[in-house]
Every structure is written in C-alpha cells, then in structure tokens.
Design goal:
890 residues; alpha+beta; Deoxyribonuclease I, Chain A; Alpha-Beta Plaits; five-stranded mixed beta sheet; globular; RT_dom
C-alpha cells in the first residue's frame, strides 16, 4: 500500500509476526531492486537509483534483542556493497547508543564503517529517550542533514536529509606538437642511427654529437606534427568501434522509420555485437595498460586513476592561471629567500675554518666502465624522458648495440676527467598541486617535480655504483640512516623505533618522540659544506672534482602549456630527481645523528625525515633538561648547516598514559613552544600515545576499500591475472606496508584488516558473501592477515641475521648459546628475552626483540637452517600456510 505517485519496495520479516522494512520511491524515479542478503538478526532492503554509478540505498533494521555478533555479519555485507557501488547510502535503526558518549558497540560500528569508506552523518538524539539509535552512513556522496522532527506515531524521530552528488569532471585539451607513437619503430630507429657519422673527441663534442644524432634519427622516422586531443575520447575507442557505432545508429534510424520486425531484429542483433566489441576493446586496452606498468607502482596507480575516471591533478594547460615564468620565479626565489634569512643570522662556521682530510680509506678515482656495465646502466631504472632529451628514452634502450660505444665513451671520459657535461645540468620542472583540495591560485600550494636528461642519469648510475660501494665498505654513513640504502627502509627504521618505545612502555616508563620538520631540505644543501663532509668520509681527487662539477652551475626551467620559462640558476641544493642526490644528502646529514646520540637520545633518519626519541623512567610532568640541551644543539647545528628548521611543524608525541599528551611540559624549539600531540604520522604510519595502532589501521583499511572500489569498476574488463596485479599493487601492498608493527594487536583491529583481505579475495575470485572465506583464501594461496604479519617479522629476522638488513636490527637479536654442550646447540635458535629484560605486560609481546625470537624458534629446524632468502621465504610461507589451513595444505 503506497501513497499516490509512489512505489513501495519492502522485505517482510522471515520469522514471527509483523515487522519488515520498506522503502517509498517516487514513481518518476528510475530504480532497480537489489536482492536482500541473509544476515542473521538483521532486516534490510536495497535498491539502485539510476545506473550502478549513481546511488545504491540500503535500509537496515536491527531489533533491540539482536546479539552484538549481528553487527559483524552486517559489516561483511556492507564490505561487499561498498565494492560494488561507488556511491552508497546505508541507513536505518541500528538500535545501538551512538550518543555523545557512545557505547562500545557504536564506537566499533562507526569506526568499522569508516574503514569501509562510509561516514556517519547523524548527530543528536533520534529517540524520545534522548539516545541516537538511527544512523545514516554514506560513501561517495554528500549528505546534508536537516533538523529531526517528532512524530505522533513513533517514539523515534523522523530524519530528513538532502543528498548531493559531485559534478562530472570536464575533459578536453589544447592542441600540442607531438611525435606520433605509431611511427616510432625501433628497427627504423636503429637504421637511422647506423647512417649517421660519428661525433668528435672532446666531452662537449661527444655529448653534442649524441644529442644531434639522436634528434636527426627521430626526426627522420617520426617528425613532430600538431595534434589536437578530441574531447571525451576514450583511449580504447578505436576507429573500428567508431564505424560500428555509425552502423548501429543507421540501423536504429531504419527501424524507427519502418517499425517492422525484421529491422528491429537486425538492430538488436547488431547492438549485441557492438556491446561485445566494446567490452572486448576495453578489456584489451586495460590489460595492455596494466601489463605495461606491472613492475612500476607509480605508473600503475596513474593508469588505474585514468581508467576509473577519478579526479586527478587539474590540467594546468587547459586552465592556466599562472604563467611558466611565474612558477619559475616562485620556485627559485623560495629557496633564495630561505637561504638569505639563514645567512643573515649566521655566525662563522667553524667547520669551514679547518678543512680535514680523512685518515682512513679514500676514493680518489673511478674505475673504467666496461661495455657490459654500459648495458646494465642503460637498462636500469625507469625509462623516463625529459623534454630536453632528443628522443624517447625507451627507444634508446631498445638499441643497445648502436648506442653502447658512444655512450661508453661519454661515461668514461666524464669519469676520467672529473667533469660532468654542462649540457646535462639543466632540469625541466613541472608544477604539481600538492593536494587536489588546495587553492590552485596559490603558488605555494604547488611542488616542483623535476625531470633530468636521460644521458645524465646514465652517467650518474656509473658514479653511484662506485660511490655507494665505497660508502658501504667503509661504513661511512650513519648506521641509523635508512634512506635509499640496500636492505634498509621505512619499515626497518620504524620497527627499531617502536621496539625501543614498546620495551620502555612495558617497563613502566614513558617516552618522547620528536619528528623534526625541515623546509626544502634537499634544495638547501650548501655546496661548500657538502664538499667538506665528502672529504671527511674519504672522497678525494678526481671523484671529489667530479662531484663538484656535478653540483655547480646547475639551472632549471618550468614547462607549462608547451612553453619553457627562462633559465633560473641554482646556487645550492642537490638536484631533485637525480640518482646521486639521496646519497649526497645522507653524507651531508651524517653529523646530526652523532650529535643527538651524544646527549643520550635515540635518532633514526630516513633521508630528511629525522626522528628523535627520549626514553624516561616513570611518568615525569616535564621533559628533562637533557632534551632542552639536545634541541638547542640540534637547532644550532641545522642553522650552522644552513638548513631551515620548521619548529611550528615539528611534532611531538608523549608516550605513556593517555593523559601525558595534555599534561606534559615540553621545552621550546628555536623560540617556539612545543606542544604534545595526541597522534603523529611518521613515514606513513600513525602513532598514538599508547602505540595502539588503531588510527593507523583505520586509515589503511579506509584507503584499501577506496582502491577496491576502483578495482571493482575495472574487474569486468580485466583478466584474472591483471585484476590480481591491480589488487596487489593498490590493496595488498597497503595491508603489508609496515605490517610488522601490527604484532599482538587486539582481534577487533586485525579483523578490520582481515575484512579488507576477504573483500579483495571475493572480488578476485568472484565469490559471494555466502561463500566461506577460508576456501577462497586457500584457493588463492593467500596467508590470512595474522600470518602475513608473522611472515613479515620472520623475513626481517632472516635478513637481519644474515647481513641482508640493517645492523640496528641485528643488534637486537642473539643466538641461543646454552651453558652446556647440548644437542640444541646447533639448532639455529635465538635467545628469547627473559622477563627481567622485557616484562611484556602492557605490550602483549609486541616488541620486535621479543616476538621475533619466539616466532623464529617455532619454525622447523630445516627452515631455520636455510641461508638463501628466496628458499627461506618459500619454506616459511609453506609452514605458516599449513598452520593457517591445516597440515594437509601446501
């Protein structure tokens, strides 16, 4: 029974009398009913309003007598809905107290919904007793609430809301001059290179000849021509599909004119053929695009964004508010102003008064590069192309026989003379909006993304290999510097940091974590100071001369809308986007960690991300004087090193009791009073005062479900291997990032991660919500989340024990050595910390130094005896897989 002008969609209660749920829809609205899932203790009815891309609505009723476990079944269903429908509304009477002081059930429901990408919009009471029982959750839409109204026929209030949809993005572009990709044939390019004369003998002549010959070759096979991108042209829409579409419209006109059965049949048959051709074209294009970027995550993310028509970076070529000259001047002047302010308040730097030479091993010359080395450097890294390059880099890589000799001559002459070619010292910068939500009119909201010539990067690889080997052999870098070093990473740094903090909290103490913020750190590196610090680690002779040449007389231009700005000189900094820059920056920052540790504080660095931490006994009301003196010394060192410290953006976390964040008194930093924060984000991981990881889990699962919804849109057009590539790159990688920090988390948190993995598994296999998840995971050979965490810890342990990981993790592990000669002496077991060392009361064995030995010793003796990483990973996963799914699994 529906009012005039409305339709009713209802689901009756399956047991008992009365009850059920119903939706009233205006008759002029196009909708499709959705099959209602069977969720114990939950009544629901759903519809799709318009197409699948429009809006899905689910009305839910949970009786007051329903047990708490019914919410888990509801969340599993919502996880499936969230994947299928990008715009989703879930509303109804949940019968939980989501009041101003919510119940634990309400907190868990709202938090879990947030991880699925759904926000809760109801605030204030919805029941006469003053409780909030009726909730509205939404994803991909804006819900604007109106005041609730009392009604005489119910003890619940009537809720009123307006739903707004975002406008569709605009497409299109200006004409551009470009080389047609279809004409860039490697075979023709090789032939064009063979017909050209050899270059001269000097380094300048060699580089100029290289550029001239490559440019002439590419002009011969694919000259530039003006191309105008068509508006709203789908990249998969081929000329054959365009012809089929014209034929389809012609058949439609014939049928509408004749109105006979034969023409209608011809039209409908051809429509089916056209739809199948469209789907096949999409599948072919999507698969080719994803396969081409399967080993390059950044490019894969970009392709997925473009395929799912997500809002990305605004096209500055189409909406040019600022000129390329304005951007170029802003980027250059920003660094100059920072440097001027620092130099104006700078005393004499003692480091420059007495330059020192290293008394240890030195690197004063480069070894000659062989043809095999040239091939290796040519194929290494990503084939990025700079606008200053004469031709696409992928074409050069496709012709190793033709370019091997001239490229080898350029590299060896550069390394032998200690000169980096001046023609390769210029970068092309593209402005990139930091966040799409920022004001595009404000130049400070853009970051410069630099692109360097391909030839210069190949020369850099030759230098980086020899310089990196020298630094590793001499242990010249700080052992706690994890940035851009083999076997090191953000996860190893955070594992060591949290291990120290968790053990301190477990002993009943507290800790302070300080995350320093530096302004444009790479751009502010002083070349004179870097020269002295290179000499300190043993860099001399031709090598030092080459690095001076590499850093001097550099410049950049901004590219925008097919135009290039004038050249702006760079007086300081290491080149953005250069292969050598992270290595040089690590050398430059080397003294800082030594300074911090001299005050008894810990210090971990990842490039310019610096984390200081102080472990304290008990729970003092204020930080000790040691911290004050250390921060003063750090600020002074950064000032003397001509680096700009941002005290207002420096974050502090006071770990211990929950009230420590508001109660503790901290010193000032560079004149700015430090204030403890309830949580901080370090290297992509969110930490709170108790290291509960709850905020991190919520953020990770929310982002993972967002990307699962993208994958759901692509799923009909992808083969299963390609869909697996997308899921692993965008979802599984998030679950696995730093998951070694999730050791010992409560079940309610790991369930959120498991829910993401379950949804990903169901999407990949096409399983329904009614299918039990264990057989699905078994079929995919995926370890459940709990065992993935254990697997990561064990792999880190293996790397640390056998020299494949950082020394700061190896120092936390000890081989078990019994006092007597026992059969277990050679069993490759580790010493588990005793209760006096780690009480493990509050952390529930979550410290790496306690969990790693325990799990390592639980492995079979055969697995522990392995020395090859690949073999160990395979055997370790097999053991954990059998534990997860039974001894018969393999």
């Amino acid at each position: 029974m529906a009012p005039p002008g409305f339709s009713v969609l209802h689901q009756s209660r399956t047991v008992g009398r009365g009850g059920g749920v119903a939706l009233l829809i205006r008759e002029d609205c196009s909708f499709r009913a959705l099959p209602s899932p069977s969720i114990p203790g939950i009544e629901c009815v759903g519809l799709v309003w318009g197409s699948e891309e429009s809006l899905a609505v689910w009305l839910v009723y949970r009786p007051p007598s329903a047990p708490a476990a019914t919410l888990s079944g509801l969340l599993e269903a919502v996880a499936g809905w969230a994947l299928e429908f990008p715009n989703l509304l879930v509303l109804g009477d949940f019968n939980i107290h989501a009041d101003a002081t919510p119940s634990s059930q309400a907190l868990d429901l709202v938090s879990s919904m947030a991880t699925l990408g759904l926000s809760q919009f109801v605030s204030g009471p919805t029941h006469q007793a003053g409780h909030t029982l009726d909730l509205i959750f939404g994803a991909g839409i804006d819900v604007i609430m109106s005041p609730s109204m009392k009604v005489p026929w119910s003890d619940h209030y009537a809720l009123k809301a307006r739903i707004d949809f975002p406008p569709p993005p605009c497409l299109g572009g200006e004409p551009i001059w470009a080389r047609p990709q279809r004409l860039m044939d490697p075979d023709r390019f090789r032939q064009a290179l063979r017909d050209l004369a050899p270059p001269g003998d000097s380094l300048t002549e060699l580089v100029e000849g290289w550029n001239t010959q490559l440019l002439a070759a590419i002009d011969e096979i694919a000259p530039k021509r003006p191309l105008r991108p068509r508006r709203n042209r789908a990249p998969w829409f081929t000329e054959e599909l365009r012809k089929m579409k014209r034929d389809l419209r012609r058949l439609e006109r014939v049928w509408r004119g004749a109105r006979d059965g034969a023409s209608r049949t011809s039209y409908r048959v051809f429509m089916k053929t056209y739809e199948m051709a469209v789907k096949a074209a999409k599948k072919s294009y999507f698969s080719a695009s994803i396969a081409s970027a399967s080993s390059r995550p950044a490019q894969l993310f970009s392709i997925i964004r473009s395929l799912t028509s997500l809002e990305g970076q605004p096209n500055l070529n189409n909406n040019r508010t600022h000129s390329c000259e304005a951007f170029a001047s802003f980027f250059a002047e920003k660094v100059l102003l920072l440097r001027h302010d620092l130099l104006a308040n700078l005393d004499t730097i003692k480091e420059l008064e007495a330059p020192r030479l290293s008394s240890g091993p030195v690197l004063d010359h480069f070894d000659r590069i062989s043809p095999a080395d040239v091939d290796r450097f040519l194929q290494a890294g990503k084939p990025t192309t700079c606008p200053l390059d004469p031709c696409p880099s992928w074409l050069i890589r496709a012709c190793p026989d033709e370019v091997r000799a001239p490229l080898g001559d350029i590299i060896n002459l550069s390394l032998g003379t200690g000169i980096f070619p001046g023609e390769l010292k210029e970068a092309v910068v593209r402005p990139l909006l930091k966040k799409t939500s920022l004001d595009p009119l404000d130049l400070s909201n853009y970051r410069p993304v630099s692109n360097l010539p391909f030839l210069g990067k190949v020369i850099e690889r030759a230098v980086a290999e020899q310089l990196g080997r020298f630094l590793d052999e001499t242990s010249a870098l700080d052992p706690f510097q994890s940035g851009f070093r083999a076997g090191h990473g953000t996860e190893t740094a955070l594992v060591a940091l949290t291990d120290d903090l968790r053990r301190q909290l477990d002993r009943g103490g507290s800790g302070l974590l300080i995350l320093l913020d530096l302004s444009a750190a790479f751009d502010m590196v002083d070349h004179e100071l870097l020269d002295h610090r290179l000499a300190d680690v043993g860099i001399q002779g031709t090598v030092l001369q080459w690095l001076r040449s590499f850093l001097s007389d550099r410049g950049q231009r901004v590219a925008l809308g097919g135009e290039l700005s004038s050249r702006h000189s760079l007086v300081c900094g290491v080149p953005q986007g250069a292969i050598l820059s992270p290595m040089l920056f690590n050398i430059f920052m080397r003294p800082l960690a030594q300074l911090v540790r001299s005050f008894g504080l810990g210090c971990h660095q990842y490039a310019d991300d610096t984390q200081l931490y102080l472990l304290m006994d008990g729970h003092p009301n204020s930080a000790p004087d040691t911290l004050t003196r250390c921060l003063e010394a750090v600020a002074g060192w950064l000032r003397g090193s001509r680096l700009k410290l941002n005290p207002s953006k420096t974050e502090v976390l006071w770990l211990g009791r929950d009230d420590m964040g508001s109660r503790g008194q901290l010193p000032s930093l560079a004149g700015v009073q430090l204030v403890p924060a309830p949580s901080v984000k370090s290297l992509g991981v969110i930490f709170d005062t108790s290291l509960s990881m709850e905020a991190q889990i919520t953020a990770i699962t929310k982002a993972a479900f967002f990307h699962l919804r993208q994958a759901k849109q692509l799923a009909p057009y992808l083969s299963r291997p390609d869909l697996a590539t997308v899921i692993h790159a965008t979802v599984t990688s998030r679950l696995d990032y730093c998951n070694s920090l999730y050791v010992g988390l409560p079940l309610r948190l790991t369930q959120k991660l498991q829910r993401v993995q379950n949804a990903a598994a169901r999407l990949l296999t096409g399983s329904s919500l009614r299918d039990h998840i264990h057989p699905v995971l078994y079929q995919l050979h995926w370890l459940p989340v709990e065992y993935r965490i254990r697997f990561k810890v064990l792999v880190l342990t293996f790397k640390a024990l056998y020299g494949l990981g950082p020394s700061y993790l190896r120092d936390r592990l000890s081989w078990y050595a019994p006092q007597r000669n026992l059969r277990s002496t050679n069993n490759n077991t580790l010493k588990v910390p005793g209760l006096r060392e780690v009480r493990l009361a509050s952390t529930r064995a979550r410290a790496f130094s306690a969990a790693a030995p325990t799990w390592w010793n639980a492995l079979s003796q055969e697995t522990r005896a392995l020395r090859d990483l690949t073999s160990f990973r395979r055997a370790c996963k097999t053991e954990l897989f059998r534990q997860a799914f039974g001894q018969g699994a393999a």
